[in-house]
């Protein structure tokens, strides 16, 4: 019999590979991109800088290097004509599901129309070129699909705007307020990568087969779409709406916790302290201020108190989705675009992981423990 190794459900705590891209240290409440704190990068650098770090291994040394990378990306935001022509039909077909569902098909079409080849057949430069093209196209695809779904014409990208500002411009058709553009940029920077989460692992599994970059990213989007992964920012905000007023917080939360329901926006499978992304986004929200922020802070405090009482011994704090929803709402993003916006950042991390995995030709092929009826059983005759 082949030797097998039993591991925890969900592969929790199992190391499956080595990576130079970053890590999450859950007990410390810390995560990093390569050797730099992700939260510090989000405070002090630009999105393009982080993209350069993940793909090229270093931060731009000066503004000239940053500008050169931005100039390399900007033309890639424009979609191939074949893909642009297909988007109206794709938006109609996914009207009930939203832009993230449309993105799965759009990425496949992008890879096919652009001639993406299997990463197994490409050298590192060819893989990186495909990954760069896919990442640059994702914001254009998402905003076009959203606008078409709303009966509006897509807004083409602007080469003179940085990543986050261009994303908001394509979404709304208006050049964004710099304060809101920076708030969204910091959110995007904080969600580029986050260890071996489900979507990142999915991308790497597909990359290990030698498939093309578009196939890897399509699988990652599918994993992200699940509400237990990236689909929670709007649900966390829906929770605030459902509670409604301060006097309803305690009874509403107690009823849900005692019923065994999950409180969206709270708890994380890795962190045993406060999520550093949530801490940063709370600070951004507080800079905006207003009734929604005040209410969110009050809900956070009461929920943590109630969870500590009803689930003693467990560290349950807000995760990135809770204040991400608040910040995106304050910046004018429609809720249907909360998870797609997350995707517009995470595609950079997925692609960096695909490139790293593609350098190792070993296919990821774990085993499963069979628990069905004892074989072999006689095949019954048809009655």
Written overview of the protein:
By secondary structure, the protein is an all-alpha fold. It has two domains: 48-176 and 195-226 and 340-359, Citrate Synthase, domain 1 (Orthogonal Bundle), CATH 1.10.580.10; 232-331, Cytochrome P450-Terp, domain 2 (Cytochrome p450-Terp, domain 2), CATH 1.10.230. It is 56% helix and 3% strand. The protein contains 16 helices and three strands. The chain has helices spanning 38-44, 47-56, 63-73, 81-93, 99-113, 124-149, 163-172, 178-190, 198-208, 213-224, 233-243, 249-258, 276-288, 291-310, 320-330, 338-358, and strands at 22-25, 30-33, 36-37. Strands 1-2-3 form a three-stranded antiparallel β-sheet. Strand 2 and strand 3 form a beta hairpin. It is globular and about 60 Å long.
Q: What keywords describe this structure?
A:
Citrate_synth-like_sm_a-sub, 2 domains, Citrate Synthase, domain 1, 3% strand, mainly alpha, single chain, transferase, three-stranded antiparallel beta sheet, globular, Cytochrome p450-Terp, domain 2, 16 helices, citrate synthase activity, acyltransferase, 383 residues, Citrate_synth-like_lrg_a-sub
Write the layout of secondary structure elements.
Elements: E1 22-25, E2 30-33, E3 36-37, H1 38-44, H2 47-56, H3 63-73, H4 81-93, H5 99-113, H6 124-149, H7 163-172, H8 178-190, H9 198-208, H10 213-224, H11 233-243, H12 249-258, H13 276-288, H14 291-310, H15 320-330, H16 338-358
Helix pairs in contact: 1-8, 4-5, 4-6, 5-6, 5-10, 6-7, 6-16, 7-8, 8-15, 8-16, 9-10, 9-16, 10-16, 11-15, 12-14, 13-15
